[in-house]
Amino acid sequence: MPAPSLDDLATLIAARRTSMLCDNDREVPVELVERLCSLATWAPNHKRTWPWRFALFTGAGRSRLGEAFAADMVDVGFGDEGKVAKTRTKYLRTPATLVVGSAAHEKPALQRENVHAVAAGIQNLLLGATAAGLASYWSSPPLNDSARVLAMCRFEPDVHLLAAIYLGWPQAEMPVPERPAPSLTVIDS
User: Fold this and answer.
1) How are the residues of the chain apportioned to helix, strand and coil, as percentages rounded to the nearest 5?
2) Which of 53, 85, 99, 153 has the fewest CB atoms within 10 Å of its CB?
């Protein structure tokens, strides 16, 4: 299969928007999310530790996710009452929330590489969501070691929670954000 052109890839990348303006009544098919997760696993992972962990929350599961995060926030004293209250309901903003974690590793260097591989995989997933017509938003979890959420996701207890990705069908076009030009240092001798 021929690779897409650089221009086609650049168009897709520039089309990606961070958005939660979604049709909450239109479900995101589980099969589509599975396909997006598969795209994530194509990110570089040179030690082949396969660190990606995924759990999809839909329907009432989104409320359960918020309650689990909020309970752990209260237990560890993270955030004020307002932040905890917001956490209880924020995963209802879109019809699907995908929690993404990175497997732990006993070697610190490989632990860091796992997190980097999962982050690169998330970008693949977000670009795939754009290509499929979905709106997406990568949110950092309020706690990256929430015991209740880790258990609910059926992840290992030492997984690092890296993202709560909101997914849904867009209701509006989002403007193109301004981007600064990259700074490239060239060393040729």
Assistant:
1) 40, 15, 40
2) 85
Domains of the chain, with CATH numbers?
19-168 (3.40.109.10)
- What phi-psi label fits residue 75: left (phi over 0), alpha (psi between -120 and 50 degrees) or beta? alpha
d(CA 161, CA 141): 7
Q: CA 68, CA 80: separation in Å to the nearest integer?
A: 16
* This prediction's pTM: 0.94
* Conformational region of residue 90, where left means phi above 0, alpha means psi within -120 to 50, and beta covers everything else: alpha
98 φ/ψ angles, rounded to the nearest 5 degrees: -105, 120
Q: What are phi and psi of 89, to 5 degrees?
A: -115, -10
> Whats the size of the chain, residue-wise?
189
Tell me, what's the pLDDT at 119?
A: 98
